[in-house]
Prior knowledge:
alpha/beta, UDP-n-acetylglucosamine1-carboxyvinyl-transferase, Chain
Amino acid sequence: MDCKVEIPSEIDKDVALPLSKSIVARVLIINALTRGADQSANVPCCDDSEVLIDALASNDDRIDVGAAGTAMRFLTAYFACQEGRTVTLDGTDRMRHRPIGPLVDALRQMGASIEYLGNYGYPPLKIEGSKLHGGALTMRGDVSSQFVSALLMISPVVGGITLTLEGEIVSRPYVDMTISLMRRRGIEVRFGSMGTRLASSTTIIVPAGHYVPIPINIEGDWSAASYWFALTALLPQSHISLSPLHQDSIQGDSAIVEMMAPLGVATRFLEDNKVVLSSDEENLLPAFYERDMAATPDLVPTLAVTLCLLRVPFSLTGVATLRIKESDRLEALREELAKLGYGIDVCDNSLSYNGNYHEIDGEVTLYSHDDHRLAMALSLGATRHKIVIKNAEVVSKSYPGWWEQLINA
């Protein structure tokens, strides 16, 4: 589907956001591991959650997760501990190029039987469910937080683990989210006695135990909210309300509040989990914007596109993991923003822009690169340019209602 994106010069809209994709994914796995949990509470919020729901309910010996990276990682750990069940996990061609080796290595240390059916270290995987054992494990912390979360969630039911993560933990808020949800379900996860953040390693201790079947209230998605924050920065006459968003959210992407404040976005939290956005008329755009994005990589496309459209020079660091997302998001951003006249520089772990711009005439066709976050971030370009987004339907991966809400804004 191609989408010609047209956005009014100001937006006055109440927006009902999808549920947090990240929280839903974790709740689905924890529910599946919980004795007596109400599986009927598994309400889908997007394509990715539907993939997980279908996989967990399926008796098939082959499961295709499509482009759902979270599902691939979480299901690898889940099926590894399902005794007597043999499953082949596969996905798109892009999925077959997204690494999973560190997670498989850790699961094998716990007794898992997992075979690579293609390239070593990558899907597809043949998993023969077996009785796993807990114990002490070591893993690099700088590869994927989803590997860590996948291990943590299954660990209570296989005897508990002491997991040492070497080096800095990328996307740390997603690990903290997993731990928070496990604690709500009765598993007292704790950090090593030397503290939560050591100079070179972090230890997480998960005791053996059983999850308690307590309902969990799922928040609205702060990642989805980020695009409306961006629109407020780009269209300062706008007044946008978003719900349901928790002020004390367990989602790291709630950091979008402080990220957008220097760009003139004022945020008010009201009752009933509603957030109201408006323009801070006294705000002056920064001469240069700099931020480490290692904890919030999903916000990089939103922030980079917004800063380019505002012509604010920037340097965003801590972005290396964006190369192994649904697309190589760094190269995709460089390629698509160049079509609009913005030249950004991409290095191994940084993204930068010097503020230069050359005028573009006529309508520009932008490609989503089969990446939902790219499609939504690039759609912001319609505030300054005439654009068409190719393969726009990919947004259903996390925000099925995006185009309808945007076009009717």
